[in-house]
Every structure is written in C-alpha cells, then in structure tokens.
Amino acid sequence: MYTKTHEDKILIVCLYVDDFISIVNIMLEYFEEEMKIEFYITDPSVMKYFLGIEIQQSTNGIFVGQQKHAIDIIQKFRMTNCKPDDTQISQDTKMRK
Question: Does 32 lie in the same domain as 51?
Fold first, then answer.
C-alpha cells in the first residue's frame, strides 16, 4: 500500500503483482496520467475484479463475491448437474464492524 498526501489531497494505492486499486479524491487525473506513461492500464474507472474477487459498485454500496470462481470449481469437478443447497448465511445479513 502506498499513500501520498498534499495539502487536503490524498492518494491511496493498493498494489499486488499486476493488479492495483487507487482510492483518491482530487489527485486521480494526475495519478492515471503518470501510470499510463509507464504501464498499459485497462479501464481504471470502475473496478470489476481484484485478485480474482468480483466487485460490484452501486449507490447502495460495494459488494464482493466469488460466484465465477465457484462456478469454475463446479464445472472443473463435473458437478453442474448436482442439486444446490441453501447457504449457511442469509443474503440479507448485514455485516458490521
């Protein structure tokens, strides 16, 4: 994790091998332009995957999941015709600190 502050501006970058997340307020354009000079960057505006985890962003919040990973495992072990079972936790459960 890298951070940079300048007056009331802050930039936070989480980097892992070839994936990164940037969390910024004002310094986004400068950061993106500098990264594009050195690296090939795919659509930095909205994150959909990070480290194999699916990310969905909306006005209601940020949701993470691994549905694609679960489907890949089911297919790998030829279990696509198996009967699914209920999850142990309700989808409406709100997690808090």
Answer: no
Q: Is the pLDDT of residue 10 over 80?
A: no
- Count Cβ atoms within 10 A of the Cβ of residue 51 and give its class: 0-12 exposed, 13-18 middle, 19 or more buried: exposed
Indicate whether this model's pTM tops 0.90.
Answer: no
Residue among 36, 12, 15, 34 nearest 25 (CA): 12
Mean pLDDT of 75-86: 88
Q: Is 54 helix (H, G, I), strand (E, B) or coil?
A: strand
The tens digit of pLDDT for each residue in 22-51 reads: 555 556 667 777 777 877 776 556 677 777
Asked whether the beta carbons of 48 and 54 are under 8 A apart, the reply is yes
Does residue 41 sit in the same domain as residue 2? yes
Helices (H) and strands (E) in the chain, counts: 2, 6
Range(s) of the domain holding residue 18:
1-45
Collapsed DSSP state (helix, strand, coil) of residue 20: strand
Domain-embedded: residue 73: yes
